[in-house]
Amino acid sequence: MAKLLEGKPIAEKIKEEIKQEVQALKHKPVLASIMAGENAGAVSYVKSQTKVAENLGIEYKLHNLAQDTSEATLIDFIKKLNADKSVNGIIIQMPLPAQIDYKKISQFILPEKDVEGMHPVNIGKIVFGKAKILPCTAAAVMELLKETGVDLYGKEAVVVGHSEIVGKPLSLLLLDKFATVTVCHIGTSKAGKLEEHVRTAEILIVAVGKAGLIKGDWVKEGAIVIDVGINRVADKIVGDLEFEPAEKHASWITPVPGGVGPLTVTMLMRNLVEAAKLQQ
Ligand code: NAD
């Protein structure tokens, strides 16, 4: 039976490290958060980010912009925050109103203030193994893997999902640890090859957003399984993998919820401290 790989205790450990780093900084770090319009999802993220920031000694400044804010206005606002030396990091809350293209506007955040780690400069640094600011979810997965104590060198790692925020950066981070990385996606499924690849995985990471996509009996004996997926099924939150049958084969497995999720806000705050250090 697999050991449960929970995010919360790891997050608590990292938060203690962050607290110490915050105290060593010359100034209290400031995270500027932009929310355009009112959305229940964004409001709930902001609430949890505010709480974590407070606990770590980070100042969280929320900027509420109107629902009808134009792209040009938002870009000007970002430029102001870029120029403001008291601001160490900038985050844009999702979802944004329909008239705003996140990909377009997020590029205006200076790479050294990009606490989500999604600016092309920060993504590019991952390729060179030099990134200090990492995409939060991918970084959370790497922390979970670190907790198992398993050396990734030469291991067969299979990542299912190739999104810009999870699968792609994660595959680069795994390569940096010398894992042999296979990335699967919708094309793999359409070619009927998903099961074949998943069965080879010593490290299996799934980030798709489809409940039950990965069958529990595809999991290799002793595999480490990380389920990033979040799906609402009959009022319950489940991952992309059939948990009960999978835990019979895996050596480690993340619960959903409670695996990756609790770590992502912590990764955001760690990025902020890295950003503040870079700016010092
Ligand atoms: P996305 O929609 O951007 O990408 C989905 C990926 O899955 C794509 O690469 C696509 O090709 C692949 N895919 C779709 N159908 C497939 C199939 N049948 N077989 C194989 N691959 C398939 O998604 P995302 O933003 O990366 O998020 C993925 C999941 O992770 C979602 O459930 C999301 O809610 C969750 N997520 C969780 C956290 C967290 O903090 N726990 C953070 C980010 C995303």
From TrEMBL:
Pathway: One-carbon metabolism; tetrahydrofolate interconversion. NADP(+) binds at residues 161-163, 186, 230. Keywords: Amino-acid biosynthesis, Histidine biosynthesis, Hydrolase, Methionine biosynthesis, Multifunctional enzyme, NADP, One-carbon metabolism, Oxidoreductase, Purine biosynthesis. Homodimer. Belongs to the tetrahydrofolate dehydrogenase/cyclohydrolase family. This is Bifunctional protein FolD. SUPFAM superfamilies: Aminoacid dehydrogenase-like, N-terminal domain, NAD(P)-binding Rossmann-fold domains. One of its GO terms (cellular component) is cytosol. Residues 135-279 form the Tetrahydrofolate dehydrogenase/cyclohydrolase NAD(P)-binding domain. The gene is folD. One of its GO terms (molecular function) is methenyltetrahydrofolate cyclohydrolase activity.
